[in-house]
């Protein structure tokens, strides 16, 4: 006996309350349908249907079994669709969201390569610090920043990367005030603080030669709420501050910022891809998430002389 096949037949009979209707829908004969139900009842050792000459009705056991059959059939159908989607070529419209800084530095260049590799995909990209409602706004994948884990939201998330922050200052600031040679000397400098939901503001956590060091940070005279505005403030000579790597790299490359105490990295930021809770992913969504993770991992691992350069000797005290 093919139990799963008979379960499908049972669901069809129950939905239409008819052996003949189920037979027509399944391209079977009525006796074949009747035999399948009898086999199922014999296998289960319980009656699923009350049969009269005028109508069919589910027994109490039949009602419970019908609910289980629906769950099992749906799970099998989804599993088959997921397996098929694995080999499907990504195609169709892909709606994406990313924070502006991360989007400009990583997502846009990644998309250029992704769309070249998958010409059947069309992309709508929203760059915004606002967190969108995925279901209301029909967003396939949203990128979120968090210091640790994302709060439970009923959505599915997967980590794309973890990015450290680096302590930076402008060459002109270091020329005037000197470059700190130790964490203790930071107390003598103007420290610009980043106040962001995904970033701890009361202290800086340094990972370096002696392990992790926690350095309390006073409120200070200048506080900003985005990584890009922090980088801009430091470029203007406002002091020393921890810039997330994605915002620091452009300024480090063009020399408008240099790293301070380059043997240290500061607290990292996690980047998560968030998508609606589904039992399986569309091929274009699944492929994009893996493509972006690989692209960002390679970009962060690439050697960059500017990003690891010591402050210039002329700026030392």
Structure in a nutshell:
With 317 residues, the chain is an alpha+beta fold.
Helix and strand succession?
A: HHHEEHEHEEEHEEEEHEHEEH
Question: SS-based structural class?
Answer: alpha+beta
State which percent range the strand residues make up: 15-25%
Give a short account of the largest sheet: 9 strands, mixed
Gyration radius, rounded:
30 Å
Q: What number is the mean pLDDT?
A: 83
Low-confidence stretches: 305-317
**Which bin fits the share of residues in helices?**
40-55%
Distance between the termini: 87 Å
Oligomeric state of the chains present here = single chain
How many β-strand stretches?
13
Tell me, briefly, the overall form. elongated
Number of helices: 9
Task: Provide tags for this entry.
317 residues; alpha+beta; 9-stranded mixed sheet; two-stranded antiparallel ribbon; 40% helix; disordered C terminus
How would you describe this structure to a colleague?
The chain is α+β, with helices and mostly antiparallel strands. Helix content is 40%, strand content 23%. It is built from nine helices and 13 strands. Helix 1 (3-16) crosses helix 2, helix 2 crosses helix 3 and helix 5 (100-117) packs across helix 9 (283-301). Mean pLDDT is 83; it is low at 305-317.
Chain-wise SSE layout:
Blueprint: H1 3-16, H2 19-26, H3 30-44, E1 49-51, E2 56-58, H4 60-86, E3 92-98, H5 100-117, E4 121-127, E5 141-146, E6 156-169, H6 171-177, E7 193-194, E8 203-208, E9 211-216, E10 223-224, H7 227-235, E11 241-244, H8 245-254, E12 258-259, E13 265-275, H9 283-301
Parallel strand pairs: 3-4, 3-5, 7-10
Antiparallel strand pairs: 1-2, 5-13, 6-11, 6-12, 6-13, 8-9, 8-13
Helix pairs in contact: 1-2, 1-3, 1-4, 2-3, 5-9
């Amino acid at each position: 006996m093919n139990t799963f096949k008979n379960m499908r037949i049972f669901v069809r009979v129950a939905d239409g309350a008819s052996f003949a209707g189920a037979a027509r829908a399944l391209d079977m004969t009525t006796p074949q349908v009747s035999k399948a139900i009898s086999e199922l009842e014999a296998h289960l050792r319980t009656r699923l249907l009350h049969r009269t000459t005028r109508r069919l009705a589910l027994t109490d056991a039949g009602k419970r079994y019908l609910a289980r059959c629906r769950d099992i059939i749906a799970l099998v159908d989804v599993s088959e669709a997921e397996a098929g989607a694995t080999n499907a070529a990504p195609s169709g419209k892909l709606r994406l969201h990313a924070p502006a800084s991360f989007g400009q530095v990583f997502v846009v260049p990644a998309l250029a390569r992704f769309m070249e590799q998958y010409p059947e995909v069309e992309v709508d990209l929203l760059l915004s610090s606002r967190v969108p409602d995925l279901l209301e706004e029909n967003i396939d994948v949203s990128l979120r920043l968090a210091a640790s884990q994302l709060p439970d939201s009923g959505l599915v998330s997967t980590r794309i990367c973890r990015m450290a922050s680096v302590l930076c200052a402008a060459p002109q600031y270091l020329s005037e005030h000197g470059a700190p040679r130790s964490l203790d000397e930071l107390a003598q400098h103007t420290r610009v603080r980043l106040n962001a939901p995904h970033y701890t503001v009361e202290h800086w956590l340094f990972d370096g030669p002696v392990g992790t060091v926690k350095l309390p940070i006073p409120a200070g005279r200048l506080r900003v709420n985005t990584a890009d505005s922090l980088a801009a403030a430091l470029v203007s000579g406002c002091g020393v501050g921890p810039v997330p790597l994605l915002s620091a790299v452009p300024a480090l490359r063009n020399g408008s910022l240099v790293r301070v105490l380059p043997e240290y990295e500061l607290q990292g930021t996690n980047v998560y891809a968030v998508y609606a809770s589904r039992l399986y992913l569309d091929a274009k969504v699944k492929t994009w998430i893996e493509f972006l993770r690989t692209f960002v991992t390679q970009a962060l691992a690439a050697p960059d002389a500017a990003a690891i350069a010591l402050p210039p000797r002329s700026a030392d005290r």
